[in-house]
Amino acid sequence: MEQYSNLSLVYDELMDVDYKKWADFVSTYFKDKNIELKYKKGLELGCGTGNMTIYLKKLGLDLVALDSSEDMLTKAEEKLRRERLRATLLKQDIRSYNLNKKFPFIFSFCDCFNYITNYKDLESSFKNVYNHLEDDGYFLFDISTEYKLRNLIGEKTFTLNREDICYIWDNYINEDILEMYITFFVKEGKYYRRFDERHIQKIYRVEEIIEVLNKIGFKEVEVFDDYKFKDYSQDSIRAVFVIKK
């Protein structure tokens, strides 16, 4: 079972995310600092099926978007075409890409870095960001918090039973690793097709993330609560980092 190998087929329908809220946070944050996004170059890491890619494009960014899943990138390309928008989509691993250019803005949404399950790779990923970010550039990303993964998801089973899609989603925690096993049944004509996905996420504490960022050379780090203009707290479900190089 591979992460996102079949999930792209149903990903958008099952994700309960207010992407507009996230985009409004991005827009307001930079507007309040009198920083213009329009016509500026941006890099998005882990773009998935392109939901935030579209919003970033509508903010006026000249965007390059990376993802390790070809299926997800195909969905993103289809969406951009429907919206009559253009972005450069590349199949790349966020731990090891080298684009030979720098950007004033780098983004990553929807807990992309939780999928990096050891500190060595996390450090490599942040070094890559540092090397691709212009001086005085901004890096904005989020993680699912320890509170969310341990208390709201870990050691729990979730189910969905609809006419067109059903799933059973089991979650197990081993120290700081969350393993998710999801069995889907998707209706195709008169029958249902089964596919299985296994996802692994690392439970990071905000303090650990800041420590790695500081080690790389990032010094100005702000942490917000779930794309709201309030400070992160211990019961936040998502921590949003905004870093200036």
The number of helices is 7
Distance between the termini: 38 Å
Q: What characterizes the major β-sheet?
A: 8 strands, mixed
CATH topology-level name of the largest domain: Rossmann fold
CATH superfamily of the largest domain: Vaccinia Virus protein VP39
Alpha-beta content class: alpha/beta
User: How much is the radius of gyration in Å?
Assistant: 18 Å
What is the H-and-E element order?
HHEHEHEEHEHEEEEHEEE
**Which whole number gives the mean pLDDT?**
93
Tell me the number of strands. 12
- Uncertain segments of ≥5 residues (pLDDT<50)? none
Number of domains: 2
Q: Tell me the CATH architecture of the largest domain.
A: 3-Layer(aba) Sandwich
How does the overall form come out from the CA principal axes? globular
Determine the strand fraction and express it as a percent band.
35-45%
Estimated helix fraction? 25-40%
Instruction: Report strand order across the widest sheet.
Output: 3-2-1-4-5-12-10-11
The CATH first-level class of the largest domain comes to Alpha Beta
InterPro entries: Methyltransf_25, SAM-dependent_MTases_sf
Coiled coil: 66-93
Organism: Caloramator proteoclasticus DSM 10124
Pfam families: Methyltransf_25
Structure commentary:
InterPro entries: Methyltransf_25, SAM-dependent_MTases_sf. Keywords: Coiled coil, Methyltransferase, Transferase. With 245 residues, this protein is of the alpha/beta class. The protein has two domains: 7-145 and 204-244, Vaccinia Virus protein VP39 (Rossmann fold), CATH 3.40.50.150; 148-201, S-adenosyl-L-methionine-dependent methyltransferases (N-terminal domain of TfIIb). 29% of the residues lie in helices and 36% in strands. The protein is built from seven helices and twelve strands. It has helices at 11-14, 19-32, 51-58, 70-82, 119-132, 146-153, 206-216; strands at residues 41-45, 62-67, 88-91, 103-108, 133-144, 157-161, 165-174, 177-188, 191-202, 220-225, 228-231, 238-244. The protein has an eight-stranded mixed sheet. A four-stranded antiparallel sheet has the order 6-7-8-9. Helix 2 (19-32) runs parallel beside helix 3. It starts with 10 loop residues before the first helix and ends with a strand.
